[in-house]
Design a protein that fits this description.
The chain has one domain. It is built from 7 helices and no strands.
């Protein structure tokens, strides 16, 4: 694989994806973290717009009816989409039928990291409360850097490592699978848009 991919393109795309993902919780709330937006953007950057749209649409539908309520943290659709697109459209050239379950697994793993981020936010909130109680000046730039910046850096590293290591691993595993298993995963991938469409229809019906 190209050294430039690992040293330049993948790090830049990972940082961009992580910055857009932060819109879901930390800043903006402009919906650019939604898979249906992030997927096509990454796909276009890689010259594979159809892969970006396809993965984005599937992950978007899968995450429509899940919300981070209480202690429940759903799959991170933005990270899952980013990893799937990068593995499929990047130099690794992972088959879409393999990139989809890999992206789902990585989105689930990224969601587990949110517990760590919640603990960090709670600690920063306690620190800010203590400073406010003492009447001291609030270092907002420091808080923003440690909170938002730390989150983006951690997610960028996760996306980079997952794509750099997961791409070749997923391709090797896919090649080693028996033919019937590959056919099964391919069939599941072909059915994924229909399942996603059913989830979307159900969500729209419930909304009305």
């Amino acid at each position: 694989m190209s050294i430039g991919w690992h040293l330049l393109e993948l790090p830049a795309l990972s940082v961009c994806a992580a910055a857009l993902e932060a819109d879901g919780v930390y800043v903006g709330q402009w919906m650019v973290s939604r898979p249906i937006v992030l997927g096509p953007l990454l796909g276009a950057a890689l010259g594979a717009p159809f892969a970006g749209v396809g993965f984005g649409a599937v992950f978007e539908a899968f995450s429509l009816e899940t919300a981070p309520v209480g202690g429940h943290i759903p799959i991170n659709g933005a990270v899952g989409t980013a990893c799937a697109v990068l593995m499929c459209a990047g130099p690794a050239g992972v088959a879409p039928a393999a990139a989809l379950p890999a992206g789902l697994a990585l989105g689930w793993a990224a969601a587990r990291m949110e517990h760590i981020f919640r603990d960090r936010r709670a600690a920063l909130a306690a620190e800010a409360q203590a400073l406010a109680g003492a009447g001291e000046e609030m270092p907002w730039s420091s808080f923003a850097c440690r909170s938002v910046g730390g989150h983006v850096a951690a997610m960028a590293a996760f996306i980079y490592v997952s794509s750099a290591a997961g791409g070749p691993a997923a391709r090797a595993i896919w090649g080693a699978l028996p033919g019937p298993l590959r056919l099964g995963f391919s069939a599941a991938f072909n059915w994924a848009p229909w399942l996603a469409a059913a989830i979307l229809i159900r969500a729209l019906v419930k909304a009305h």
